[in-house]
Amino acid sequence: GENVEQHPSTLSVQEGDSAVIKCTYSDSASNYFPWYKQELGKRPQLIIDIRSNVGEKKDQRIAVTLNKTAKHFSLHITETQPEDSAVYFCAARNRNSGNTPLVFGKGTRLSVIA
Amino acid sequence: GAGVSQSPSNKVTEKGKDVELRCDPISGHTALYWYRQRLGQGLEFLIYFQGNSAPDKSGLPSDRFSAERTGESVSTLTIQRTQQEDSAVYLCASKASGSPDTQYFGPGTRLTVL
Hints:
The complex is a heterodimer. Chain A is an all-beta fold. Helix content of chain A is 0%, strand content 54%. In chain A, strands 2, 4, 5, 9, 10 and 11 form a six-stranded mixed beta sheet that branches. In chain A, strand 4 and strand 5 (45-51) form a beta hairpin. The model of chain A has no long low-confidence stretch (mean pLDDT 94). Chain B is mainly β. In chain B, a hairpin with a 5-residue loop joins strand 6 and strand 7 (75-79). The mean pLDDT of chain B is 93. At the A-B interface, strand 4, strand 5 and strand 10 of A face strand 4, strand 5 and strand 9 of B.
């Protein structure tokens, strides 16, 4: 089955700097890669996702890149703000296998220092 | 419309007791997932339901765990003879059938086994 590795487990950046979180996956059939943000005590919320027919997707200060050959994808947050502080989870699944569950990485705790 | 809801939000129980956790998915969502999140950890898949198909129980950690779902509505996760290691947040998510990929999470039930 799929296995998703996520690094780093914790990340501290100064406000205004960029943050990068990286994930690798094992199943070459995976073709959907979402990123969830979970603030303390809250539910995980989707912030951006990418499908395997594209290599990069941007939404304001957030971008995700995908390298299918190397089986890794990354989350980039630019101009970080204190409200970006949260735990971020990457995930992967095969969209062609019905509604099979997402396989999550273990999460990255991002702290943005003002 | 309303999002995914879960009840109770918190549950404290004594070791050895049974507990039932409830999930109300988004109306019309055919897929429903249960995940477990231990303190400071990632999301661990437990079980998922897809319409009237047999559920995928491959993530259930022991036979003390079971879940039911009637049609495309409410689901209950039951943990029998609870143990202290069952203490965690139990998250439910639902997803529409077909091409929409997004899983929407509920707020979770925080279970504490004393």
